[in-house]
Amino acid sequence: MEDTKIIALFEARSEQAITALSTQYGSTCAKVAHNILGNPQDVEECLNDAYLAVWNTIPPQKPQRLLHYVCAIVRNLACKQYHAKTAQKRSTQYAVSLEELEGCLPSASSMERHWDSEAIAESLNTFLSGLDRNHRILFVRRYWQAESIEALAAHFGTSKHNISVRLSRLRKHLQRHLEQEGVFL
Amino acid sequence: MKQKQLSDAIGKIDAAYVEEALTDTARKPSITWLRRGIPVVAAAVVIAVVAWQQPWNTGFAPTIPNVESTTDDKNMVSVGGVPRFYCNRTVQTESIALIYPWEYLTLPEQYVYAAFQTQTYHIVGRDAISDTSQIGESLGSCIATGTDSYTDQTHSRSFEVYAIRGIATECMVALHMDGSFYPYAKDEYDPPATLGEWIEQYSLPDYVQLERFSQTDAAHTAKEYFHLSDDTAFWEQLLTCKDAPFTEFDPKSRDSVNKISFTITSEVLGVYKRGLHITADGYLSTNLMFYGYAFYIGEETAAELIAYATANAEPAFYEPYYETVAGTLIEIGEDYLLIDDGILCETPSDGMVFRVPTTDLRIRRTLLMDVVTVGDTVQLSFTGTVDTAHDNQIDHPVFLQIAHITENGELYS
Q1: Is the ipTM of this complex over 0.85?
Q2: d(CA B406, CA B348)
Q3: Alpha carbon of B95: minimum distance to chain A alpha carbons (Å)
Q4: Distance (Å, rounded) from C-alpha B216 to C-alpha B233?
Q5: Would the pLDDT of B302 be above 70?
Q6: A91-95, A179-183, B32-36, B348-352: range with highest mean pLDDT
């Protein structure tokens, strides 16, 4: 079903809206939640909360990209749940992917400006805009979707080693970019 | 905090990029890869971070793994207590770790969760409890589960559950696996109300020796290391403030105060070099039992504890998170391998050969999967000592990695 039709169902407060949304994008949403939470019960709970959030926000919202809209809600909820439940990391793909990236961000000394997440996101967008499509997709699937190395290898039809090397180069590239922009945490 | 901020920033990247990735269709496998086939070694999933290297990420981890070590010109370096004279070369391990196929995992690595009665427990530590006198009565059986990272298949198996003497069973139990007992702890953040409750739950004075600690001043300009030979009085003092309440706090706010930090290892509790800090502004904070806990013990008590510890301890040397030895892998035998560190010496013939037992699957699998082979430059991390009376045998090897040696910024090997 097209996005516009699903959104129309939400606007009409039709109970079919959530079913349609789940049918269309449920598996992608579940994958994102699972990568972060790693636990089927938590994933189910997260998806239910996300669908409810979509129900509560459309209308008045009318997202142009419904897939991104719902996946972003799923990711936010999953991240919140993850950080609330774990004072230490568990070995989910989300934890591993975050740790990979953490090394790219130098710590700020007292003299340096502390960047907020909006500003860092802006810098990340600049970085992404300079990448070719394949590398950009690889980056987003790894660090936004927290997809595993194995899943990425399957997706790109290459070896895990190849993916790992490409990610390592991307991180180095990102580190240089952030240093040039003076991004510190 | 850094991770949280990073996660927030990633979450805010342009929707167009996210949608581009979400809707991207899978590629066909590349011909070159298919032609090459998939060698056994490539079947290992490469990830960029070793989970146990950062057992805690709430901001005040006291120890960092020793993944890189630099030797000064012909400086003396301690390898598990053995003095070695190395020239100015840098050892850098590949910053990758391997996730092994299911059959190359030990039982506690395979079955990381255990459901018993109404609770879920998680494996803690990597070693079995060697002192079986600490194992209490049998409590019944549980279903332990784990996921094969290669196939995403979930495995489950039944194991006998035992109490650990003195420890509340709702906090920790031991699973009997293949003749050994492994500690499993409650898998949820459930802070105790008071310090006394926490100490009692885990019978801490029985299982935690407050032995090695460092002292740091508020400006972080000095850090000294100490060894406390008898912690009895220290525990007694701690037990006088059993009512100290649990408190939520930002660990980073404790960075700028005077403090002493104990390094704690306990086989029964399944912890290796965790931290317990007493800060001059009156807090006891710790990551001992996997989550960040803090208790307000008061400035006066904290001052007394710090004064007692520093007055009764002997100066000590810094100890790395892991001991390491680097060199060339020169031989792989039936149940051992040999590492020659001559590559770090000015004259290679001055190298010492270290013997590493490979009976432990966690070392043997590195060989079985051809991650390393004879002739490779490697670095072995270990927690034991070097027995110079018996072929320089290394106790308790932890993991073996490919290493690179550089000299003046250039690759040496």
Answers
A1: no
A2: 15
A3: 10
A4: 22
A5: yes
A6: B348-352
* Whole-number pLDDT of residue A120: 84
How far is it, in rounded angstroms, from Cα B329 to Cα B367? 11
Please state the three-class secondary structure of B165-229 as a single string: CCCCCCCEEEEEECCEEEEEEECCCCCCCEHHHHHHHHCHHHHCCCCEEEEECCCCCCEEEEECC
Q: Is A143 on the interface with B (CB under 8 A)?
A: yes
> Are residue B157 and residue B170 in the same domain, yes or no?
yes
Residue with tokens 């180095």: A172
Which residues between 273 and 312 in chain B have a beta carbon less than 8 angstroms from any beta carbon of chain A? 287, 290-292
Give the best residue of A99, A135, A145 to mutate against chain B (max B CB count within 10 A).
A99
pLDDT above 50: residue A127: yes
Residues B361 and B253 in one domain: no
C-alpha to C-alpha distance for A113 and B193, rounded to whole angstroms: 38
B234-to-A174, B273, B308 alpha-carbon distances in Å? 48, 19, 7
Q: What share of chain B is helix, strand, coil (3-state, %, to 5)?
A: 25, 35, 40
Asked if the C-beta of B53 comes within 8 angstroms of chain A's C-beta atoms, the answer is: no
Give me A34's structure tokens.
């699972």
Domain final residue, candidates B315, B346, B368: B315
Is B303 a member of any domain? Answer: yes
* Cβ contact, residue pair A117, B8, below 8 Å: yes
B51 interfacial to chain A (CB closer than 8 Å): yes
* Among the partner residues B29, B42, B49, nearest to A99 by beta-carbon distance: B49
CB A25 within 8 A of CB A66: yes
Does residue B295 lie within any of the structural domains?
A: yes
Inter-chain residue contact A99 with B26, CB threshold 8 Å:
no
Contacts of B31 in chain A (CB under 8 A): none
- Residues A96 and B97: their CA atoms lie apart, in Å, by 11
Taking a C-beta distance cutoff of 8 angstroms, is the pair B277, B286 a contact?
A: yes
Closest residue to A155, CB basis, from B26, B57, B188:
B26
* Host domain of residue B90: 68-97+322-405
User: Closest-CA residue in chain A for B7?
Assistant: A98
Q: Are residues B10 and A150, on separate chains, in Cβ contact within 8 Å?
A: no
Top residue of A159, A162, A170, A172 to mutate, by most chain B CBs within 10 Å, is A159
